[in-house]
Amino acid sequence: MPLTLATTTPGEPEIFASLQGEGPSLGRPSTFVRLSRCNLACEWCDTAYTWRFTGDNRFHRDAMAFERRENQVVMEEAELAARIAALEPDRLVITGGEPLLQGAALARMVTALNTARPGMHVEMETNSTVAPHPALDLLVHQYNVSPKLAHSGNPASLALLPERLAAWAADGRAFFKFVIAEEADLAEVMALKDAYAIPGNRLFLMPEGRSSDVIRRRSEWLADFCAANGLRFTDRLHIHLWGDTRGT
């Protein structure tokens, strides 16, 4: 079964080598694969082209709609594995959208990749709401889990599922990354940390923003909060280096 990917330009899948810009692997050379489709709709999402297609009435603050044909491409699992294997980095970051919606196909793709390029470190990014396919779960070295707070615009009944949050908190491979826009968001994070016993060394706070100016302004007070509360701060390195662009 083929995988549905996002695109950098019409017809060109979003597969690229760069530096990881966020979280525990920040600064590491990585190969990125961005999949299409998401089950949530964050109003500040910087990859809305993976889900907000023409006719989708879910809210986004930019009010932009993207043509599906130009922003989605289908690729066979073996072909994707070969494209990844041909790039230099030995670390793969699978992102989205919500990648775990395509878990079974991803498991077959990563299995093929492990044959073509043994030893690849596999990172999976997820919004926390979808359980990993069992076959895929065996192949993932690290989960970058980003539960969505109230300011995302998603209702907690969809975005903060207790059984999933508990499972991620219990998985030592899972690092939590919360997007923070205002100081008021911090109380929500601390309540979730306490409710699910999320260790501080696996909990990152990241300023929301699609420009260096906004990120730096929010970083000033957010970094202080992390230092005072035993949490980890993460920047958005790719935004500072290349701006809010695809394929970076």
From TrEMBL:
Residues 25-244 form the Radical SAM core domain. Its cofactor is [4Fe-4S] cluster; S-adenosyl-L-methionine; Mg(2+). It holds the Pfam family Radical_SAM. [4Fe-4S] cluster binds at C38, C42, C45. One of its GO terms (biological process) is tRNA queuosine(34) biosynthetic process. It catalyses: 6-carboxy-5,6,7,8-tetrahydropterin + H(+) = 7-carboxy-7-carbaguanine + NH4(+). S-adenosyl-L-methionine binds at W44, C45, D46, G97, S146, P147, K148. The keyword Plastid does not apply. PROSITE patterns: RADICAL_SAM (PS51918). Pathway: Purine metabolism; 7-cyano-7-deazaguanine biosynthesis. Homodimer. Catalyzes the complex heterocyclic radical-mediated conversion of 6-carboxy-5,6,7,8-tetrahydropterin (CPH4) to 7-carboxy-7-deazaguanine (CDG), a step common to the biosynthetic pathways of all 7-deazapurine-containing compounds. Belongs to the radical SAM superfamily. 7-carboxy-7-deazaguanine synthase family. This is 7-carboxy-7-deazaguanine synthase. It comes from Novosphingobium silvae.
